[in-house]
Every structure is written in C-alpha cells, then in structure tokens.
C-alpha cells in the first residue's frame, strides 16, 4: 500500500510541475538588432528614456572598464570616441548593442558571454548620453560623486578633433 501511495504522490507532484513558457520571453539582444539593421524596438524605448537604466549603464561603463579604451567621458583614447557626431557602425541603440554583443574589427572585443542582453541595452543607453543623444528629461540629474558641476551626461560634449 505504501508503494502505491508513494507512486500516487510522485505522479501528483510531477503533474503539478509546470515549466516556464519561454515562447513569450524575448532576448533583448535580438530586439531591434536583426542583421545589423536599425529598427526601432520596444527595448530601445524602454532603455533610452529611462533614467534608472541610463545610470545602470553608467555603472557598467565603469565596471567593464570601457573608460580604459574610450576615456572616462567617452572622448576617446585607445578606442574610438563616443561623444562625436560620426559613428562608423551607427548611433542607434540596436547598432550599439550589436557592437557590444559581437565586437568590431581592430580592437572592440565581443561581450556576448560577459554581459546579459539587459546590461547591453543599459550600456548602450548610457553611451548615447555621452554624445548628447539621450532625451534630457531621462538623464539622471545627479552623478554618483559629490560635485558642484553639472553631471557628465548633461554637459554639452566638446567637438571631437582628430589628432594630426
């Protein structure tokens, strides 16, 4: 009798288990980044105009040492400047996410296995603020450090002048 009861309990428990329906869960890396084409997507709107997402992108910019190549303010260095008006691979959010995800020739590493899709979109939202492309009402009103200057994301970027 106890084996039948145990079998019944196990069948009842197995029947009660439900797996997560992943057909409705989308990867933010895939949204708007179809083959490199710039497509306006819900993910872009969710991250581009949200102050929290932009500030998380700022934190990731520091943590992932993006400033090591692109400079603390995005003015360039070993890597390309992020605050100029010309973007070789596109300045759209989907283009920036594709660059972060897959990397680019001549130095930009791929972060596909190091960052989640959400983190890539957050980072892309912050990178757009460096060149003044973010909506002014979405930019965080204060930085992480005490200062009497305007936050870096609300300053007008200086024009980029290539080295001679």
Describe what this molecule looks like in 3D:
38% of the residues lie in helices and 0% in strands. It is mostly helical. Residues 20-39 have low confidence and may be disordered.
Weakly predicted, low-confidence segments = 20-39
H and E order: HHHHHH
* Rounded Rg: 22 Å
Count all strands and give the number: 0
Q: With helices defined by DSSP (H or I, 4 residues minimum), what is the helix count?
A: 6
- The shape is elongated
Largest sheet, in brief, is: none
Average pLDDT confidence is 75
The N- and C-terminal alpha carbons lie at a distance of: 88 Å
Percentage of residues assigned to helices: 25-40%
Q: How much strand?
A: under 5%
Q: Helices and strands: which structural class?
A: mainly alpha
């Amino acid at each position: 009798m106890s084996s039948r009861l145990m079998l019944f309990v196990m069948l009842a428990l197995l029947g009660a288990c439900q797996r997560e329906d992943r057909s409705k869960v989308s990867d933010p890396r895939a949204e708007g980044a179809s083959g490199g084409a710039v497509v306006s997507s819900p993910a872009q709107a969710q991250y581009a105009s949200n102050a929290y997402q932009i500030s998380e992108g700022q934190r990731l910019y520091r943590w992932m040492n993006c400033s090591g190549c692109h400079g603390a303010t995005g003015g360039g260095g070993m890597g390309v400047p992020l605050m100029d008006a010309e973007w070789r691979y596109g300045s759209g959010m989907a283009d920036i996410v594709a660059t972060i995800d897959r990397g680019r020739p001549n130095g930009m590493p791929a972060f596909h296995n190091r960052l989640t899709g959400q983190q890539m979109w957050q980072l892309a939202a912050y990178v757009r603020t460096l060149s003044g492309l973010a909506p002014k009402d979405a930019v965080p009103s204060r930085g992480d450090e005490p200062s009497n200057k305007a936050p870096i994301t609300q300053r007008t970027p200086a024009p980029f002048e290539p080295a001679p």
